[in-house]
């Protein structure tokens, strides 16, 4: 991964997931994102304003790439834009 995610929040990540076709289910155990391709991304309860943990970022990037939802380089471009002060684009 060539970009960093120092400013990326869970809200940014969850928006990206929704924008790429994931549906979310919330329970007391956390949030699970499901994609029509059968990709699944579970998260423990986190606040959307909380900065993302690296392992969640890596797992999300790999899942999106492996299921052909979003290539890894496109994911990295979104991180670079975020680092430059923007929001994660749709």
Distance, first to last CA? 20 Å
Could you name the ranges where pLDDT drops below 50 across 5 or more consecutive residues?
none
Give the SSE order as H and E letters.
HEEEHH
Strand percentage: 15-25%
Structural class determined from secondary elements: alpha+beta
Summed up, the helix count is 3
How would you sum up the global shape? Answer: globular
- Domain unit count: 1
DSSP summary, beta strand count: 3
Radius of gyration: 12 Å
Q: What proportion of the residues is helical, as a percent range?
A: 25-40%
Task: Based on the model shown, name its key terms.
90 residues, alpha+beta, three-stranded antiparallel beta sheet, 3 helices, globular
Structure, explained:
The chain is of the alpha+beta class and 90 residues long. It has one domain (10-83). Helices cover 39% and strands 16% of the residues. The chain is built from three helices and three strands; from the N terminus they run H-E-E-E-H-H. It has helices at residues 10-19, 54-66, 72-83; strands spanning 23-27, 30-34, 40-43. It has a three-stranded antiparallel beta sheet. A hairpin with a 5-residue loop joins strand 2 (30-34) and strand 3 (40-43). The longest helix is centred in the middle third of the chain and has 13 residues, at 54-66. The protein is globular, with a radius of gyration of 12 Å. The mean pLDDT is 88.
Layout of secondary structure:
Elements: H1 10-19, E1 23-27, E2 30-34, E3 40-43, H2 54-66, H3 72-83
Antiparallel strand pairs: 1-2, 2-3
Please outline what is shown here:
The protein has helices at residues 10-19, 54-66, 72-83, and strands at 23-27, 30-34, 40-43. It has 90 residues and is of the alpha+beta class.
